[in-house]
Amino acid sequence: MEIDEYERSLQHSARVLREASLDAFLRKVMCDTVGSERCGSVRIYVVKDSSMNAGMFPNGMMLVNTGLLARLHSEAELAAIFGHEFAHFEKRHSLNKFLERRRSNDWASWIALAGAAAAVNTNDTIRDLRIGLIAFTRLQETEADILAGGLVVGSHYRLRASYVWLRVIEEEDALRAERGLRKIRRLVPALSDDHPTNEQRFLYFAKQESEVGDWGEDGTEGYRAATSVVLPILFDALIKGNDFAVADYVIRSRGEALGWDAPLLALRGDLYRLHGSPRDLASAQDFYQQAIAKPEAPSSAWRGLGLAQLKLGNPAGRDTLADFLKRDPAAPDANMLKMLLEN
After folding, report:
1. Residue 60 domain flag
2. pLDDT tens digits, residue range 284-303?
3. Coiled-coil intervals in this record (predicted)?
């Protein structure tokens, strides 16, 4: 009932990205992955959130974060994610986890009460119960990974899950390097981990992919076209977040995999301009100019270039911003930019 109520609130929430062509594309990939009969109970909502996550609830509601869509490169990779989440749904993992957690909490309460009455320390026993719950969740994740591989192999898509987990590892490396931390490689989960490690998942899927063979469709162009429609929204939270290295890695990996079109170059310009150092502003200028040189350049490239030029003390920025206002006179910040040019 609570989940149904949450879904009703989502239907009118500003957090949900509403784009009919993207919704149709996601439904098609889901149905192609799990079969048209089984996908009928699934309702997909794209949520504006920078994290790489998706989740499926016991009532058939599925949430897909914009941060996940920004990081994937093909329909085949999306199929692996959808297969994993659908496996959780079909195996009723969410409900089973809830029941297991409730049982553990009930036992912990009784053990604590009995221990208090008998003046016995029960902390170790309660801790073991909690660890058992974590292990239960980890087993569910492993089962969902196994089932996801089978779903993708049974579809027309190529199994490409290891590529996703490799980029997760590389993204974490980029973040740790930015923060001056060493890289971490873990093949064995820590006691408190409720998921297999990223390295475990990469190696498992790489092995399965080698056994299955290199057949099936990637759907790279279809994925690029479907996500390009909402590209600025997919990257907005990442660009405005606090992890520059993560955002730059995600943008670069998409550019290298799907091509450096003008909107993506403009978004990389936005990232560097907002980062703000003189060196970053110079890089931002270059990205914007590369975008403007392409026929599909978005008007935002002129806006970003003008602002970067002004921050660097280049008076040409005024002309660039004036050009932007001619191209997009109804821009949300048009009045603010006009005031800037009048001063």
Report:
1. yes
2. 999 999 999 999 999 999 99
3. none
